[in-house]
């Protein structure tokens, strides 16, 4: 079996190991990971700097133990999976364009699907029989047309979408499943067989470390990957405040197409889709309409569900000193752009100060490029 940390020729095995260790270290999320790599040049140098950065933020710090990373890599290898790093030529372009894109993914299956046009098909776990049938037929038609159908392998609509895409795969189309657990964990248990089919005939991806059981906080992260991989997100059936609507909102914020299939106002499971359409999502009733919307997609969606957020653009500056921004922060989220304006410091200096506070456990990051003090 090939080495799961094998990457681009320019990335050594030691640096690949250091990247995994950096991302698994306490309080290092995708945004901080990217900023640390820009500042220090290599993950090895960034890991070495973590304790001193955190001390300046006001707390002691220990990076992830090397033995834990060794155990994770061994588990990935046992699962027949491999790592994909953010700067690999195989890393999906649309996902790379999103804020907080996952720096490292674990994969099983055909990474060539990352380079197919992709559409997310999501919906209710307790889906009606009609919604399950629609999800399966839409996904089969989209796969036959050469699309990669992306979903979350959940019960109901997600599972039907994967099954339909597997049945209709042709012309390079297929299905990508994004799971909220480690690459070696099947969830829900009744989809273990379907998960293996996806890994064998499509592509299975996970952001969480191998061995991680799915927790509630992992699902919004999974949803952002589903939306980020796809030119558009189709919601088949969803109740208000469901996870599927979170995926649709994220897709809108990313400047992607948001589509929904209307349903009866008498069925609460259709209320989410109907509200999406009312709020600007495109009403679709046939797979051909989805294809028409996404053909040659240029990040200019026809849906008006949500305007894309634009965050601060940080230019790397290895000479920057941290700005004094702690007094400007509270437990109420504020945009990083606003901190740059009010502090009068450069963006790179503000960024470094936020990294120090985050590593010390004093800062939380929120959607839309906002931050707050930890409670």
UniProtKB/TrEMBL annotation:
What SUPFAM superfamilies does the database record attribute to this sequence?
A: MCP/YpsA-like (SSF102405)
Fetch the Gene3D superfamilies from UniProt. 3.40.50.450, Winged helix-like DNA-binding domain superfamily/Winged helix DNA-binding domain (1.10.10.10)
Smf/DprA SLOG domain sequence ranges: 83-294
Domain of life per record: Bacteria
Single GO biological process annotation from the record: DNA-mediated transformation
Domain DprA winged helix, chain residue ranges per copy: 316-369
Q: Which NCBIfam families match?
A: dprA
The family classification in the record reads: Belongs to the DprA/Smf family.
Q: Which PANTHER family match?
A: PROTEIN SMF (PTHR43022:SF1)
Can you say what this protein is called?
Answer: DNA-protecting protein DprA
* Gene name of the record: dprA
């Amino acid at each position: 079996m090939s080495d799961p940390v094998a990457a681009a020729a320019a990335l050594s095995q030691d640096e690949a190991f250091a990247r995994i260790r950096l991302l698994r270290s306490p309080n290092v999320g995708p945004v901080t990971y990217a900023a640390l790599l820009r500042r220090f040049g290599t993950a090895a140098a960034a890991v070495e700097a973590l304790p001193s950065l955190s001390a300046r933020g006001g707390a002691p710090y220990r990076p992830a133990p090397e033995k834990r990373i060794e155990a994770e890599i061994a588990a990935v290898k046992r699962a027949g999976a491999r790592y994909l790093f953010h700067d690999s030529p195989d890393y999906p372009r649309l996902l790379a364009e999103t804020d907080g894109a996952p720096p490292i993914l674990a994969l099983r299956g055909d990474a060539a699907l990352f380079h197919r046009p992709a559409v997310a098909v999501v919906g209710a776990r307790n889906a009606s029989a009609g919604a399950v049938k629609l999800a399966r037929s839409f996904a089969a038609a989209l796969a036959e047309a050469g699309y990669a159908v992306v979903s979350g392998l959940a019960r109901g609509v997600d599972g039907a979408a994967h099954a339909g895409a597997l049945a209709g795969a042709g012309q390079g189309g297929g299905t990508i499943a994004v799971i909220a657990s480690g690459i070696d964990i099947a969830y829900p248990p009744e989809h273990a067989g379907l998960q293996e089919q996806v890994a064998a005939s499509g592509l299975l991806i996970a952001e969480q470390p191998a061995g991680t059981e799915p927790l509630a906080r992992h699902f919004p992260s999974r949803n952002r990957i589903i939306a980020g991989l796809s030119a558009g997100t189709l919601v088949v059936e969803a109740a208000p405040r469901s996870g599927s609507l979170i995926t649709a909102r994220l897709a809108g914020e990313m400047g992607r197409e948001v589509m929904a299939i209307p349903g009866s106002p008498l069925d609460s499971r259709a209320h989410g889709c109907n509200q999406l359409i009312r709020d600007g999502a495109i009403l679709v009733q046939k797979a051909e309409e989805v294809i028409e919307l996404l053909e040659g997609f240029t990040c200019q969606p026809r849906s008006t569900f949500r305007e894309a957020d634009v965050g601060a653009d940080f230019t790397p500056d290895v000479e920057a000193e941290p700005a004094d921004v702690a007094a400007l922060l509270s437990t109420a989220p504020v945009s990083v752009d606003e901190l740059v304006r009010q502090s009068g410091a450069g963006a790179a200096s503000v960024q470094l100060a936020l990294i120090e506070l985050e590593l010390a456990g004093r800062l939380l990051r929120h959607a839309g490029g906002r931050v707050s003090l930890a409670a």
